[in-house]
Amino acid sequence: MLQIDEEVAKLLELKAQLGGDDGKHQFVLKTAKETLTGKYGEDSKLIYDLKDQGGELLSLRYDLTVPFARYLAMNKITNIKRYHIAKVYRRDNPAMTRGRYREFYQCDFDIAGQYDAMIPDAECLKIVHEILSELDLGDFRIKVNDRRILDGMFAVCGVPDDKFRTICSTVDKLDKMAWEDVKKEMVNEKGLSEEAADQIGEYVSMQGGMDLAERLLQDQKMSQSKQACAGLSDIKLLFSYLQLFQVTDKVVFDLSLARGLDYYTGIIYEAVLTQAGVAPVSTETPQGAPAEESVSVGSVAGGGRYDGLVGMFDPKGRKVPCVGVSIGIERVFSIMEQKAEASAEKVRTTEVQVMVASAQKNLLEERLKLVTELWKAGIKAEVMYKKNPKLLSQLQHCEESGIPLVAILGEQELKDGVVKLRVVSTREEFDICRAGLLDEIRRRTSEA
């Protein structure tokens, strides 16, 4: 009862924060809709819109970043470090085999607060590197860029100010389209001059590391942009921290990375899995030359710095600097499943440690007694929900589900005071005295 009261109290507290029934809650939702539409760029068309019974226009959340920013503003939080796993919704074209859905889970990690440049940003990249390395999904690389570098590049290439965001969205398609198609969209659909598009093409073909940032700081055109120079200086600083974190082997400074979301203000990054391996990042490619081919099999994480988003929800416009990363959980699961199928690896679908089985009929009571004994000892066990299941069916269930052990009861075992313990993977069987069964199961499951 106490737990229920605590939950009710939490709900009431949340209701009070959102404004109770005085209409403030509706105002917050309505404002959020306007903010969603204004901050996702051309991806705004993927937002699910809906109306409540009063006809008010609302939206399903597109990501976890905007709700997080609103939470910080509503609660006047200026310093927090947290992760969040939840569902998001997008009116996208689903592709089940690639882990692309309209309703899916994301895992976000964010650091909010006023800190020295690039230290929290480097930690976010370290976390992505650690996650992808631990999951062993295959070769990957983490592409990094900076919105200020992109804006500076557009300016020195002759892109009009009012076309920055729309050209940025087109550049963001370079991971899916060839440069010629991207250029055609810039010129024919976005109205950019062919000369400006060609200049952009020279820059977005560059990849490298700290040395590329140093070279661009000396570039005749880029050095004219204060924005670009500030971004390039931060890229240099970022790589110096990444060297200390020992993750520069997988990180590449890639000028083609744009990330179409409008709310990014500084560093941006994206992690992609590759089939042909990770492109070298120690030296930059020559100006205008294509980077080494590395076939992408899809983005699994992305993020960046969004220093202005919290201020959009604060009545006084107070800003809270933020940086974060989002991991596509379904995408990761899809890749892990494909790898398991390709290697014929059996995926374990249960945490059950032992199945209590019977070799003859009329032994349900004995099975239930033994499984109760195992449950009391904290061992994860189960029985088949049939009075007289066939032994072969029980053993097949263990093999299919990945249950490592089977405790088999038979009339002879009951007379002898033993249990036949079967190791599913090797099909070895041992007679274990009933008194020593718990210790034997614990020993074998701990070894596994």
Automatic annotation (TrEMBL):
It comes from Seriola dumerili (Greater amberjack). L-histidine binds at residues 63-65, 90, 106, 110, 259, 263-264. Belongs to the class-II aminoacyl-tRNA synthetase family. It catalyses: tRNA(His) + L-histidine + ATP = L-histidyl-tRNA(His) + AMP + diphosphate + H(+). Gene3D superfamilies: Anticodon-binding domain (3.40.50.800), Bira Bifunctional Protein, Domain 2 (3.30.930.10), S15/NS1, RNA-binding (1.10.287.10). One of its GO terms (molecular function) is histidine-tRNA ligase activity. The lineage of its organism: Eukaryota, Metazoa, Chordata, Craniata, Vertebrata. Its EC number is 6.1.1.21. This is histidine--tRNA ligase. Coiled coil: none annotated. Residues 83-336 form the Aminoacyl-transfer RNA synthetases class-II family profile domain. Keywords: Aminoacyl-tRNA synthetase, ATP-binding, Ligase, Nucleotide-binding, Protein biosynthesis. InterPro entries: aa-tRNA-synth_II, aa-tRNA-synth_II/BPL/LPL, Anticodon-bd, Anticodon-bd_dom_sf, HisRS-like_core, HisRS/HisZ, HisRS_anticodon. One of its GO terms (biological process) is histidyl-tRNA aminoacylation.
